[in-house]
């Protein structure tokens, strides 16, 4: 078993390739780098994005279509700026709005149960 030292490459225009089946055992072959580290990282990220599009988007879109609903709201910049500013300051806008709605549901249910303690509906 041959033992090659694994030293990290410095920013060099050349890359050392060690092949197990090279003609001269233990002799490295030198190849010119095709891309800089930044270019290689960008190419890798682009390949990963493309793969995600092919494999994930269709199933994700199907799930969203069947299991979720988007409810947009319109806020007037001139008359409801306080609401817009407050909402913009929230780190999780959807979670904040859902929390407010759930609190309102609990409050409404407790008021309804206090006004009708028997739970019977009058006809």
Chart the SSEs and their pairings:
Elements: E1 14-17, E2 29-32, H1 37-67, H2 81-89, H3 93-115
Antiparallel strand pairs: 1-2
> Number of helix segments?
3
**What's the rounded overall pLDDT mean?**
79
**H/E element order:** EEHHH
Q: State Rg.
A: 31 Å
Uncertain parts:
none
Biggest sheet strand order reads 1-2
The number of strands is 2
Overall geometry:
elongated
Strand content: 5-15%
SS class = mainly alpha
Q: How far from one another are the termini?
A: 90 Å
Biggest beta sheet attributes: 2 strands, antiparallel
Number of domains: 2
User: Which range best describes the helical content: under 10%, 10-25%, 25-40%, 40-55%, 55-70% or over 70%?
Assistant: 40-55%
Task: Please outline what is shown here.
By secondary structure, this protein is mainly alpha-helical.
Written overview of the protein:
The chain has two domains: 10-68, no CATH class; 71-116. 51% of the residues lie in helices and 7% in strands. It is built from three helices and two strands, in the order ββααα. Strands 1-2 form a two-stranded antiparallel ribbon. The radius of gyration is 31 Å and the shape is elongated. The model has no long low-confidence stretch (mean pLDDT 79).
